[in-house]
Amino acid sequence: KLANIQPRQNFIRVADHRGRAVEAASVWFVDERGKRYPSDGWSVWKTDEGGRVCCWTPTSEYGFLRGAFNAHVEKRDHQSVDAKIIISQESDGSIKIAPHAFTLAPWGAVSALVIDQSETPVERAVFWLTTPQGKEYGSRYYTESTGRFETSPVPPGTYTLHIQKSNHDNM
Question: Using CA atoms, how far apart are residues 46 and 170, in angstroms rounded to an integer?
């Protein structure tokens, strides 16, 4: 006989845009009055290798109240998520969270090959990104000996790519 197994709803699961678990994502809640949980202001819950952080916590430990909260989920080089959640208390004092699954989209990177008019790779060309407001974003980088480059991860958005090399026209 097969048992009817219900999914646990006292945890948060964090996955990337392909459904893969995101390990070591930070999770915390903020109530309607602005109080943060975990409440010491420095702690966060971290997801495990399965992308889960268990929130089965007796009410007395963190002082949870039932009601609406804002869940904040973030990981370096990923787009953070802020979402409204409802927390209810079970008869044993544990909490139930709904919804309990979140998707973090990884940031992208800009990569390309820089060649001159004779299609020769341009080594040590400096490149950088600017926002639509003209503000430089991130660091300046250099192309490799092959003319290739890749930026560190950047959040989704619109950027202008600038490439410059002495003895070459600006690109």
Answer: 45
* Tokens 């341009």, located at residue: 122
Whole-angstrom distance, CA of residue 88 vs CA of residue 86:
7
Q: Match 């070459």 to its residue by tokens.
A: 168
The token duo for 12 is: 């948060």
C-alpha to C-alpha distance for 171 and 149, rounded to whole angstroms: 14
- Tens digit of each residue's pLDDT, the chain (171 residues): 333 333 445 677 888 877 888 899 888 888 888 888 776 656 788 889 988 887 644 444 555 556 788 888 888 888 888 888 877 766 665 556 776 677 777 788 888 899 988 999 999 999 999 999 999 988 888 999 999 988 888 888 889 999 888 765 655
Q: What angle do CA 34, 84, 7 make, to 5 degrees?
A: 125
Contact between 103 and 15 (Cβ < 8 Å): yes
Q: What is the pTM of this model?
A: 0.58
Nearest to 125 by CA among 111, 145, 151, 152: 145
